[in-house]
Automatic annotation (TrEMBL):
<dbReference type="InterPro" id="IPR003010">
    <property type="entry name" value="C-N_Hydrolase"/>
</dbReference>
<dbReference type="InterPro" id="IPR036526">
    <property type="entry name" value="C-N_Hydrolase_sf"/>
</dbReference>
<feature type="domain" description="CN hydrolase">
    <location>
        <begin position="35"/>
        <end position="289"/>
    </location>
</feature>
<dbReference type="GO" id="GO:0110050">
    <property type="term" value="F:deaminated glutathione amidase activity"/>
</dbReference>
<dbReference type="InterPro" id="IPR001110">
    <property type="entry name" value="UPF0012_CS"/>
</dbReference>
<dbReference type="InterPro" id="IPR045254">
    <property type="entry name" value="Nit1/2_C-N_Hydrolase"/>
</dbReference>
<dbReference type="Pfam" id="PF00795">
    <property type="entry name" value="CN_hydrolase"/>
</dbReference>
<protein>
    <recommendedName>
        <fullName>Deaminated glutathione amidase</fullName>
        <ecNumber>3.5.1.128</ecNumber>
    </recommendedName>
</protein>
<comment type="similarity">
    <text>Belongs to the carbon-nitrogen hydrolase superfamily. NIT1/NIT2 family.</text>
</comment>
<keyword id="KW-0378">Hydrolase</keyword>
Amino acid sequence: MFRCVLGSSVKYLASLPVLRHHHLLQNRMSTSPPAPVAAVCQVTATPDKEANFSACKQLLEEAGQRGASMVFLPEGFDYIGSSREETLSLSETLGGDTISRYTQLARRLGVWLSLGGFHERGHDWEKDRRIYNSHIIVNDKGDIVSVYRKSHLFDVELPEKGVSLRESAFTIPGASMVPPVQTPIGKVGLGVCYDLRFPELSLALQRHGAEILTYPSAFTLATGAAHWEVLLRARAIETQCFVLAAAQVGRHHDKRSSYGHALAVDPWGDVVGDCGGEKPGMVLVEIDLEKVNTTRRNMPVQQHRRDAAFYHSLSQS
Ligand SMILES: O=C(O)CNC(=O)[C@H](CS)NC(=O)CCC(=O)C(=O)O
């Protein structure tokens, strides 16, 4: 159900029908209208904002041409800085140049965008020099329709694995969740990267109507190899949502590389798209919401969930 587009060369994954994409965009023989298509992207951002923008722009244009209704870019699509100071100094407000170029692109291409992990200057920037890690949804008219600020920050030391990051040194945690956004592919619930490890968030989004969960990410090589796919599939299985996770891949600068494998998972937990661990690219996935409905109808786990008092009963005993 997917293909990888790597620059201008097109690579079909061996086990998949070669005409799949062609088929995707044609009218099908069945009576149901074709399901809308999401493009889940992966990029290798560097500290060079201009180069990052042109790489993302190319992916968005390609996704638009191939019939995607909504395109997903990863955390740090704007840049990945090589130091705390660089990360802070390159940041902008939502009203700055970077986001206005993306809103114009969305309008010109007629696609919705999920811009995961924008380095957003806070309101008190002059005073505190801190940013938010913001996931922005832009509609096909170029309006910003939602902004979610990453609420779990990645302060993690794994000495044996060469991972040492302290996101809270430059980032303010978001204060609240945002309601799922109605888009042409369905109701999209917003998270960012490390948020993926907190099922409380995904379950709350599901309870508030999410059909698709999104985790734009920049996972480390070590934690990605160990946890990435398992976590994404678990979130899909528990919530019976599609899970779309755009990703950073490869080497950003001397000190940092990312795991890649931008992934699309269906509500049953099957991986329906994977961008691999090598290079930038995208997967196109049909978002057939009937899959959400039938999965939930056949195994009604949300109805089987006990009330909050039940899960608190241990602390009372
Ligand atoms: O730093 C930036 O510029 C953009 N932000 C990130 O890359 C963030 C914070 S350092 N990365 C993660 O959350 C990785 C999570 C992860 O790898 C895991 O949960 O295992």
